[in-house]
Amino acid sequence: MLPTFNTDGDVVLVEFWTKKTNALKAGDVVVAKSPTNPKQTICKRIAALEGQIVTVEPQNAFQQVRHHVVPQGHVWLQGDNLNNSTDSRSYGAVPLALVRGRVFYKMWPPSEMRRL
Q1: Which of 25, 30, 39, 81 has the least CB density, counted as fewest CB within 10 Å?
Q2: What is the pLDDT of residue 88?
Q3: 6: how many CB neighbours lie within 10 A of its CB?
Q4: Residue 17 C-beta-side C-alpha neighbours within 13 Å
Q5: Vertex 61, ends 42 and 90: CA angle to 5°?
Q6: pLDDT digits (tens, 9 = 90+) for 32-81
Q7: CATH fold of 11-111, please?
Q8: Is 93 helix (H, G, I), strand (E, B) or coil?
Q9: Contact 44, 32 (CB under 8 A)
Q10: CA 20, chain centre distance (Å)
Q11: Phi and psi for 63 in degrees, rounded to 5?
Q12: Would you state the pLDDT for residue 57?
């Protein structure tokens, strides 16, 4: 999630109301259980919601542009550092049940405190 978050040591505040009221929107930063490792927590930005179409650009010369429709009950998550992020481009749409909450404030380090 560089440059939004550092690789280590950031402290954020997470709220759970937005998810419970189905008010998540594209652009929100969320904390979720990893779809590939349930013991791991991930922090990614929602790029698309259910029913929206996502275009995935090729990562190398051997791939083609892909289009995905986000299924009902899922979100498409992407890291802010698209060149170095394992996200929905790798593992597909993420079930909403894995999303834990929305990050709304960065607390630490003090020089980077701000609302997200």
Answers
A1: 39
A2: 95
A3: 13
A4: 3
A5: 20
A6: 999 999 899 999 999 999 999 999 888 777 888 899 999 999 999 999 88
A7: Umud Fragment, subunit A (2.10.109)
A8: coil
A9: yes
A10: 17
A11: -100, 165
A12: 86
The answer to whether the pTM exceeds 0.85 is: yes
Rg (CA), the chain: 14
- Give per-residue pLDDT as tens, 80-115: 888 888 999 999 999 999 999 999 999 998 899 899
Structure tokens at 78: 């992407």
d(Cα 58, Cα 36) in Å, to the nearest integer?
A: 22
- CA atoms of 66 and 13, how far apart (whole Å): 34
Name the nearest CA neighbour of 96 among 77, 82, 78.
77
Decide if pLDDT at 2 tops 80: no
Going 41 to 79 to 53 to 89, the CA torsion angle's sign is negative
d(CA 89, CA 71): 14
